Amino acid sequence: MRIKGRAGVVLTGGAGAVALLATGCGGGGAGKLASGGEKAEITITPANGTGQVKPDGTIEVKASHGRLQAVTVQDAQGGAISGALASDGRVWHSTRTLTPGASYTVTAKADDDGKALTATSTFTTLKPAKTLSIVDVTPNLTGEKVGVGMPIMLRFDRPVTDKAAVEKTLKVTPEKPVEGAWRWIDSQQVIYRTKTYWQPHQTVRFQAQLAGVNAGGGVYGAKDVQETITIGAEQITKGDIGGHHMTVRRDGRKLRTIPFSAGNGQTREYTTTSGVHLLMERGNPVTMVSPGREKGDPGYYKTVVNHAVRFSNSGEYTHSAPWSVGSQGSANVSHGCLNLSPANAKWYYTIAQRGDVLELTGSSREVEWNNGWSFWQLSFDKWKQGSALS
Predict the structure, then answer these.
(1) How far is CA 71 from CA 96, 106, 134, 295, in A?
(2) Which of 95, 143, 202, 241 is deepest in the core (most CB within 10 A)?
(3) Alpha helices per DSSP H over the chain
(4) CA dihedral for 308, 310, 316, 318, sign (positive or negative)
(5) Rg for the chain (alpha carbons), in Å?
(6) Can you give the pLDDT at residue 346?
């Protein structure tokens, strides 16, 4: 990375240093790299040949006189480490952690009143017994467009001891800025939600600078992760369970009003939940089985349905239900799903994006915030309380 003005690059590392000396420098005076016969030098820490450098250490480059002109740090694959130059131009420090078990080469250049000085150092980082990796980022389907309510969900391969240190590495950058926050669901899962819905038709970039981060208990982050998420159209559906209809809008424009038959309400299980839901997945066909009941038990059912769109973890879908067409728009007769006509179910299935909003009102059962992706049931202030950095 070439240094201009006060910008620069910094690295981390352990003890030890390597110095390159410049002899024959002239006498003292402004702009001189050395004065009074003193030898000018560039010192790099960690020193050349150092091993077992802690990944969360700091690389330091110093010029005894004059100014550093350029500092680069690269691993064996050509990946670069960023850093910052002090205001006097003599000291550079790395600004991020290093990949465990990797080899790095530092190259530094300084100016001796027009005479170039160069120093290099190659060192290796510690390979810890345990590392931490992100094993899933949702959404992550190639070419997928998601809805404006879509969260970003991360899962790690082991419990995180120092959640704050890990959370600091997580960065979300939308093209159209909006406030957001992470919430830890448990020691291995953290979820990002915005304060208001994403603006539609934009790209959101996610980056985790996890490599080398001390996650606690001797565990270091294994590698960085980055994903690009595409926000599609704003598709928001609002339905009244008591009124048996829902209206679908795209980017504020009404597309269709659909009659449905919701849960019959005879039990809590058969009551469709009110609240803000997100569409989670689609299936065609999907086999519906009564929860907690065996074949032969009262209320047991096993039904194959077409064009099903899930909106909770308690078995709620919109789906094709030709057997209840006569009740759709006038009565609630289902086991908790939204029964649609075959034509309407297929249409809704076709346009559905994961993360689209489905807001239902009119029942006695409110959806829990952690039932499926119903995270919008929490106020943003309560949501932020789950951050390790709040």
Answers:
(1) 15, 7, 31, 71
(2) 241
(3) 163-167, 342-351, 380-384
(4) negative
(5) 29
(6) 98
Q: 210: helix, coil or strand?
A: coil
> Which segments of 104-239 does DSSP mark as H helices, in order?
163-167
* pLDDT tens digits, one per residue of 332-353: 999 999 999 999 999 999 999 9
Low-confidence ranges of the chain (pLDDT < 50): 1-36
Query: Measuring CA to CA, how many Å separate 248 from each of 347, 352, 353, 359?
Result: 11, 10, 13, 10
The answer to whether the CB of 239 falls within 8 A of the CB of 344 is no
What pLDDT is stored for residue 38 in this prediction? 62
Pull the structure tokens for residue 207: 């980056």
Question: What residues act catalytically?
Answer: 319, 337
Residue 277 pairs in a beta bridge with 358
The pTM (predicted TM-score) of the whole model is: 0.86
End-to-end CA distance of the chain: 34
pLDDT for res 113: 78
Contact indicator for 151, 192 with CB cutoff of 8 Å:
yes
User: Strand locations in 214-272, DSSP E?
Assistant: 214-216, 219-221, 225-231, 235-240, 245-250, 253-259
Q: Which of 333, 45, 370 is nearest to 193 (CA)?
A: 370
Give the Cα separation of 334 and 345 in Å (integer).
15
SS3 assignment, position 134? strand
What are the structural domains of the chain?
A: 12-124 (2.60.40.3780), 130-232 (2.60.40.3710), 235-377 (2.40.440.10)
So what's the pLDDT on residue 23?
31
Distance from C-alpha of 340 to C-alpha of 180, rounded to nearest angstrom: 35
Non-local (6+) Cβ contacts of 41 within 8 A are 19, 20, 21, 22, 63, 64, 117
